[in-house]
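User: Before I run my own analysis I want an independent prediction to cross-check against. Here's the chain; please return only the structure tokens and, at the end, one sentence I can use as a sanity check.
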Amino acid sequence: MPVEARTRVALGALSAACFVSVTSENLPVALLPQLAAGLGAGDSAIGLLMTGYALVVAVSVIPLVAWTSRWDRRTTALVTLGMVVASNVVLALAPAYWVAVVARLVAAAGHGVFWSVVASMAARLLGPGRGGRATAVVFAGNSVAFLFGLSVSSWLGATLGWRTAVLAVAGVAAVTALVIRLTVGPMPAEGPSGGPRIVADRALAPVHLATLLVVTGHFAAFTYITALIAHYVRVTGPATSALLFAHGAAGLAGLVLIGRHIDRHPRATALVTTAGVAACLLVLLVVPGPVAAGSAIVAWAAPAAGIGVVLQGAVLRVAKGRPDLASAVYIVAFQIGIALGAALGGLGLDHDLLPAAVAIAVAGGLTSALVVRRSRAFGSPA
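Assistant: Structure tokens:
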């Protein structure tokens, strides 16, 4: 296979790995009623399979990335994908809830390690000066997971049973790992770990702050997007599914546009992403009517899809010597933002103050844009 064609296939395989990682992570969302019935657990207990997953990632990612810092990067990706396969096979065979908990913990332990290396692997495949575009290509798997992965998993669970759906995810992960093994060459670790120096690098502090702000705001609203649609657009049922599909398609289109410009204009694309999230959600608060609200919810996906790309790109620019460990710290900030945003949005929902969750999202987007505007981490490379 020619080198250029092999590189394309390798990038596609890494994108597929992102797809299967996100789909696997969110399986309890797609299969909630089936899992609850099959494992004899309540909906809240199935929800804990998501919460516990995020907590394990946040707590384990830095020590595990440090421990694997001398591993070949391809080996690291293959091991973590193997953990996804094992996790979902055990989950599919789980006779009881506690086995499902153990199965989820296996995948969670490898989740953060995988995400700490996948962007730098893509950047090394495309070469210097193209890290942002490489990240956008592989992160397209995230958008496709939300667009198709969860809906197909839900359909499989409803028609063939949740165990079949979970085994299907395990199968896709296994095939993806095989393609990566065949198309991605060895990628030795890049230099010494850097340990505490990387973790405490002040140059990365603005990136972590921007991450915490924009992710907290985004997930304060996104976690309850179906409630937002019902409240502002005033539709439910199949119309909600159609709007969510349009939201996912807009996210994929936004990711393509951001990927084309991020390497040449990193600050501008980061500002479009952070301020764009705020602007779309501000429409919900100040422009009445279901048409404006529906349009804003769909448009919101375009800048939101770039959050991970612009932030991960900043990490790669600043931490050139040890991108995996620096990415691990960024992942912790991202996971804390998800948990904090979901909790704050949930408070607003519980107290019938859904606009408060939207206001938090607007504030998070605007304040993160201010950090981006002032930080050198988002400046153009020399």
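Sanity check: The chain has 17 helices and no strands.
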